[in-house]
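Q: I'm building a small set of examples for a reading group on sequence design. Run inverse folding on the following structure and report the sequence directly after it, with nothing in between.
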């Protein structure tokens, strides 16, 4: 007998990622049976891909009336923790938009509830699902880089003049931060995941160059990894409409890689190339190599690799043999780095990441 598809309650339609998520869910073996949007001024009828489902104003009412198997959340950072908690307390599995809260303290309060519940919670750090990112992680695990010395990353996007700057994403009360908390965090999560090497302290500066927007539109973060490697991250809303400029570069004494994850324009219907270079004897015949990845034409958030990431989450909720691709603990790690970065921007000093104070003292 075929098992019924899990039911999904979608919470947070007034979000840039709601329609892409719904497009992905339409391709996954699930059924979206209800939705919720707390902002009653938002026109839910204009959301593509939602279908004819009951719409709620209160997530708890949706949980109690519909009892979905999974809740998909794309609310503000401010509102997300309480909704995760309400779902988990009812045994409902959760897939939530990153970063899942404004600060680490807001997630720490959730961990006891989540750890004591049977519900599965996943966080949408979908770049972990990209085959190029997984290749770099495999290379790091096999010692390709040797002694890592330098890590550089960039996430530059189009200016706020081309975006809906009135949205809660760009309000400090709802989001806490701007470009660093919305886009820069992708690389703050991905680089330590690739290298298996935590960020232990940071030195950051931020700029607030967009009038009437109270979150930063630019940031530069220097960071030190637990291994002693030094890294940098630059991010900002600087470019013309639709343009992106992204880069991940890792340099070690034995090997280096360079990768442009996003490409010139947002989308996942082109190709991306990783450049590798090695000093090792086994690479002597071709020290520099290129790995090119073509994207399948898959609709939704993150295209085919986003689909694979979300499918892994769905598999993890029913099988202990499948790991959750990004957990609430992973989200907490990222938020601790963000906490340190915003504190550093205010104090103009190096700030240790919570949990790594002793290690930081040893390097000073």
């Amino acid at each position: 007998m075929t098992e019924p598809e899990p039911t999904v309650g979608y919470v947070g339609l007034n979000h840039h990622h709601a329609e892409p998520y719904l497009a992905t869910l339409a391709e996954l073996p699930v059924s979206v049976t209800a939705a919720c949007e707390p902002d009653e001024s938002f026109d839910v009828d204009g959301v593509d891909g939602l279908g004819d489902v009951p719409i709620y104003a209160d997530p708890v009412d949706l949980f109690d009336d519909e009892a979905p198997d999974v809740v998909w959340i794309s609310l503000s950072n401010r509102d997300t923790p309480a909704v995760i908690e309400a779902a988990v307390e009812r045994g409902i599995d959760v897939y939530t938009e990153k970063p899942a809260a404004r600060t680490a303290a807001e997630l720490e309060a959730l961990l006891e509830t989540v750890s004591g519940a049977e519900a599965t919670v996943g966080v949408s750090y979908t770049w972990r699902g990209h085959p190029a990112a997984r290749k770099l992680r495999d290379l790091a695990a096999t010692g390709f880089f040797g002694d890592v010395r330098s890590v550089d990353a960039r996430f530059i996007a189009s200016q706020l003049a081309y975006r809906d700057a009135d949205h809660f994403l760009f309000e400090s009360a709802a989001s806490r931060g701007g470009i660093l908390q919305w886009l820069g965090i992708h690389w703050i999560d991905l680089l330590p995941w690739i290298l298996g090497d935590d960020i232990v302290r940071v030195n950051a500066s931020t700029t607030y160059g967009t009038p009437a927007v109270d979150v930063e539109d630019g940031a530069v973060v220097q960071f030190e990894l637990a291994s002693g490697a030094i890294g940098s991250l630059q991010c900002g809303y600087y470019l013309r409409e639709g343009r992106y400029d992204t880069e991940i570069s890792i340099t070690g004494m034995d090997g280096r890689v360079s990768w442009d994850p996003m490409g010139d324009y947002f989308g996942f219907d082109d190709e991306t190339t990783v450049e590798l270079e090695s000093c090792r004897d086994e690479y002597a015949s071709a020290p520099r190599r290129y790995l090119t990845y073509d994207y399948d034409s898959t609709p939704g958030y993150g295209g085919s690799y986003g689909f694979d990431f979300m499918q892994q989450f769905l598999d993890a909720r029913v099988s202990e043999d499948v790991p959750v691709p990004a957990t609430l603990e992973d989200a907490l790690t990222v938020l601790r780095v963000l906490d340190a970065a915003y504190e550093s921007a205010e104090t103009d000093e190096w700030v240790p990441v919570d949990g790594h104070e002793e290690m930081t003292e040893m390097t000073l």
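The chain has ten helices and 15 strands.
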